[in-house]
Amino acid sequence: MTTSFTSIAPQLEAQAIELPSWAFGNSGTRFKVFGTPGTPRTIQEKLADAAKVNELTALAPKVALHIPWDKVDDYQALRGVAADLGVELGTVNSNTFQNDDYKFGSLTHTDSAIRQQAIDHHFECIDVMDATGSQDLKIWLADGTNYPGQGDLRGRQDRLADSLEQIYARLGDDQRMVLEYKFFEPAFYHTDVPDWGTSYAQVTALGDKAMVCLDTGHHAPGTNIEFIVMQLLRLGKLGSFDFNSRFYADDDLIVGAADPFQLFRILYEVNRGRGFDADSPVAFMLDQCHNVEDKIPGQIRSVLNVQEMTARVLLVDTVALTAAQNAGDVLGANSILMDAFYTDVRPDLAAWRESRGLPADPMAAYAASGYQQEIAAARVGGQQASWGA
Amino acid sequence: MTTSFTSIAPQLEAQAIELPSWAFGNSGTRFKVFGTPGTPRTIQEKLADAAKVNELTALAPKVALHIPWDKVDDYQALRGVAADLGVELGTVNSNTFQNDDYKFGSLTHTDSAIRQQAIDHHFECIDVMDATGSQDLKIWLADGTNYPGQGDLRGRQDRLADSLEQIYARLGDDQRMVLEYKFFEPAFYHTDVPDWGTSYAQVTALGDKAMVCLDTGHHAPGTNIEFIVMQLLRLGKLGSFDFNSRFYADDDLIVGAADPFQLFRILYEVNRGRGFDADSPVAFMLDQCHNVEDKIPGQIRSVLNVQEMTARVLLVDTVALTAAQNAGDVLGANSILMDAFYTDVRPDLAAWRESRGLPADPMAAYAASGYQQEIAAARVGGQQASWGA
Amino acid sequence: MTTSFTSIAPQLEAQAIELPSWAFGNSGTRFKVFGTPGTPRTIQEKLADAAKVNELTALAPKVALHIPWDKVDDYQALRGVAADLGVELGTVNSNTFQNDDYKFGSLTHTDSAIRQQAIDHHFECIDVMDATGSQDLKIWLADGTNYPGQGDLRGRQDRLADSLEQIYARLGDDQRMVLEYKFFEPAFYHTDVPDWGTSYAQVTALGDKAMVCLDTGHHAPGTNIEFIVMQLLRLGKLGSFDFNSRFYADDDLIVGAADPFQLFRILYEVNRGRGFDADSPVAFMLDQCHNVEDKIPGQIRSVLNVQEMTARVLLVDTVALTAAQNAGDVLGANSILMDAFYTDVRPDLAAWRESRGLPADPMAAYAASGYQQEIAAARVGGQQASWGA
Amino acid sequence: MTTSFTSIAPQLEAQAIELPSWAFGNSGTRFKVFGTPGTPRTIQEKLADAAKVNELTALAPKVALHIPWDKVDDYQALRGVAADLGVELGTVNSNTFQNDDYKFGSLTHTDSAIRQQAIDHHFECIDVMDATGSQDLKIWLADGTNYPGQGDLRGRQDRLADSLEQIYARLGDDQRMVLEYKFFEPAFYHTDVPDWGTSYAQVTALGDKAMVCLDTGHHAPGTNIEFIVMQLLRLGKLGSFDFNSRFYADDDLIVGAADPFQLFRILYEVNRGRGFDADSPVAFMLDQCHNVEDKIPGQIRSVLNVQEMTARVLLVDTVALTAAQNAGDVLGANSILMDAFYTDVRPDLAAWRESRGLPADPMAAYAASGYQQEIAAARVGGQQASWGA
């Protein structure tokens, strides 16, 4: 017997998932980036699209920025644009992988001038945060090497520690740094922050305002990600999530698309570790690439997937589960979990959405809204946003 | 006791490894493509660079073309340019992944007009082959889907078979088709030719002129590639190799860079299956991306790696090995193989190169040649070649 | 809108999943095999347990035998025992991995006497099939090597082909051979039948009565198994399934336990390729190890998982799916699939079971039956069945 | 130009690699354990075999014990036996995976009585250490679950922390605890110490005498192990190595057999991080299973592999390497590393061994010694040692 939907609704109401501005631009693989009609040319247009997602779902009140892709002259003004659209500016993401100077590293570089340049870029990001009121500086580092011997792994790690220390020192009292780890790509032999252990050791050395960012697509094949979620919550160091899903590498597919049951297990550990609590330090965010599917409905689908799976997780009869676990009842315990996973929460969610003045089916509502046709007609000319700009 | 170097020299003399024209252009990841001074702007400049590799190593007499990247008006003229440089035009590679029409497939597309366009592109490639005298049409298909349900796996496979049949029918008597398989990328949920079994089943259905192409980077983690080499040679269907190496995905690193012992085992099976024989149907080729290292010396290093490893393989005492295998002497058999692997063949190879009028150390000879400085100075302006052009 | 349950019931009624006799014995890892009260000591007791599964589910009318584990003097008598219990004897599985002679191979061995012994064992299995009326001889070969050089991959493959030919020749008109492939284990460097391509090439060389057996746990990490299902059905060579699930290696967990959505996709392709049709050549079977969970409810849970997932697959609106696929509507097509996956089929299935005189909840019915307590009390003394006996 | 052999000989002379007593017993897979003539029946016979390895190589002065497999009444006496054979007793390994009580966990168990039993077992191991003079208590924990929901990941981790704390408190001033991590097996869904991050977080919470044990076979596919070596040395927490090699899972093959270049890179980072220094806290040890190859020569081959690869690593021209790294010379830096890797150190090592009164070729010396024939003749009757006893 799972818990009743009514009892979990308040928790669902508090759910918020930050959207990445870049998900609304074009993206692709090294082989090809396909364009699509209606793709935003500016951060203002990206915000408009993100606001549409929030309007239809009430799940996505914040939009993460990527610097320099979303660079503007006046961040106060941008904050106003967002506010007018009903959203806030969220996490600021730095970029140290597209400047020619960073071919052999940024925060880890042997050349102190280039390393300083990368540190300065993060200072600039903190300035942006000051202007936007953003809480988090997210650092995903593309640094690494392609061939054994190309770099000195140890020296690079030491320089990384020093660079992070300098950036950390610049953070305001209410600001945080989240350090993302990634198994591989774009570097192929070694990556300077390849696993949660490295991110954890680095942020622990910095202090309380530094936390780990877990991207669900950044692990070796077969890794038990929910275990890491549990461990980081237990250690008090899970700062944020980048949601997406993967079959092979960092596929950046829609969260829940590749292995819905894995998403269920991950969110179960979030809840078990009180990551959904009001005072939880965990920020939830999407990080995805809509290479072949439509971007706005891709984002809507994603936040709905997280919402639906959260509902299933909250339905788990944890009292019965604990009893079965303590009794060594393997099949019983497993079936309590599966019972919640297999429960169809969609009708209850649809009704509940309507009761809150939201469309029962946000995907259908988007399709019916005409917004896609509008932007396709309006956004003609200019340079469609992508990772390159 | 390994075999003597003298006895294996004649086999080494016959070795030829085709170079890919695109290895001389810029390449990168979805995050960034770094440019480098001296990068060719045209196929003619690519041929010049390839010819340099061959001049210093006598290992690379052919250059593979990629259509449309290497498209020219007059292929007869291009053939002449190559001949003047001391090389030949080799395999013709088709491209069905960069046209906007191919977003959802090419040879597998549900839309018969788009599918015909992709078939026609291969007809055009065969026309190029007629003009260049190339033997092989290589088909690597980016077709696949990113989400379960996006496509009908079965229907796509059937349309692929039909498309290949039409292309096959156009081949001349001395022309072949080689069908490459790849585990994943650029598609993330399914790929239409993901494994050797699929390629084998498809080419077997076509006839004797269709063969499998094995790219050493296109397998699932942990796959025993030398077993596949053995099996395809045994079945008479190994048409060609694309050499490179990988740590994670399709990293396209220098062959032998990631796991030299794996390269040794692969080449051992090539030799065991008579793939080095004069009448062998196996074409050897590089397929690499020099993202952060210099391109021309990257290619020199690659063909030298194959040559050095071939020498080690030829040194294996196969009589003693067979005896140990039949005796169930696990450690003895393994040590016979390892003995050859650990033999330092470099001094003998250097002396032998000199005896043939080649530089003892082609890497050093290239560095000393001033060629890199020359092209860096000369190739200013224009558009550096990359996958995009 | 998914299809209605009523319309799919007839197809569900025809479903049959063979149980492996060894699932009722103890199993474990190289570290430990845990015993449990009530574990069968004989094949007759295994049949009784299997019959219990069938009694409560009407899904498991056949029991596969493993020779020599299930060896008896009188197979006709055993057939009678089964019939009295309401089940039939099914697939006969050979065993060439536990005899000391097979340390370095069986059907691939260099020693012709040992190879003949392994061939003779299969002749003996065919004799058993003649007596039991079994249709299928299943060959899973543990042959392989642990170290490079230990064996001659090519020679072993050729001897395998010859051995299989001799066994194939002995098959009766209504008998089949199914050749199972496995990525690795118990051999660690190479396995003689490691992938579907090898099994396909070997059985194709034999003739129509030889087919491929696909065990869902026997693939490299990340392999798209449903693609292989599609391909083998398309090629007319999918003979049988061994269902189970895996997180890492050949974990042999309960089917659907690790990745339910993968099971959904696999069964979707079975249906797409007409593998559920009455005249389909595909035999469905479990192959699992209940190391820590109870065995009989483990088997009940497994067949129910297959049944529930089959129901979800049959609910897919294939007409709408095809339309969305042809329109390039990625999100639409995916959501039609997911709609069926997320449908809770359990209430309809429970009612339908009751309408057929079966318990609505077979797991609960088993727990209430007292059978477990009965066998725990009765089966005292003797040697509990396991892989060793 | 690599460094000269003469200059590295002193470092090689100090090398010591501990042997595991269990490597001399029989081992296998869940499918079969093959016996071999001459296999020890007792820990005394295992010590004799280990002493033979050390006699011929001077590389293996210590032997690790496994409790209860190597349990004796009088450890002082055993210490004397070892001393008479010219070896010492080394690391003590606990075992919490073969008692029926540990089916659902040991140091993590929900039942406090069973958990106390597991803690007490470690107290007993510390008593053994007191008697044998062993420095290290090695804990490899088989604890984990097979099905989602079976256990509470968080609660288990907390109980693990508490159990380790109690054990840690019992350690003497000169004793250490090393906590091994393992990706998977024998548990299939989750393992309580699955990665270096978990081991690091747990031992850091304990204190200076607790360190991480890195087993080279215990990582996800594709993991860059040398990076972890670098990181743990940098963090001062690399306590010990378990050497072996793997193609797929925890294959426990001879170290250096599967990927010699990986061993080279790992040992390079050991040297880079001063792990070979006299005052280094790193203990080197083998942990292998000789399933199909002879055990004593298997161990000789293993220590020689480590010695040969260490020699190659010490030959690296680190000054030139650093210069190339700082210059961004990717190919140059890589080739400095490869130059050492491809150097054939075997002739120098053979001469050097002779100069120290050791056989030039320890493998040949063992084969010629007649020892294998002696033990095969002498060790008849009794129970051959294996994991079970």
From TrEMBL, chains A, B, C, D:
Q: Which keywords are on file for this protein?
A: Cytoplasm, Isomerase, Manganese, Metal-binding, Rhamnose metabolism
Q: Which domain of life is it from?
A: Bacteria
Q: Mind listing the GO molecular function terms for this protein?
A: isomerase activity
Q: Which InterPro entries match?
A: L-rhamnose_isomerase, Rhamnose_iso-rel, Rhamnose_isomerase, Xyl_isomerase-like_sf
Q: Does the keyword Transit peptide apply?
A: no
Has the keyword Isomerase been applied to this entry? yes
Protein name per Swiss-Prot or TrEMBL: L-rhamnose isomerase
Its lineage reads:
Bacteria, Bacillati, Actinomycetota, Actinomycetes, Micrococcales
Q: Which gene encodes it?
A: rhaI
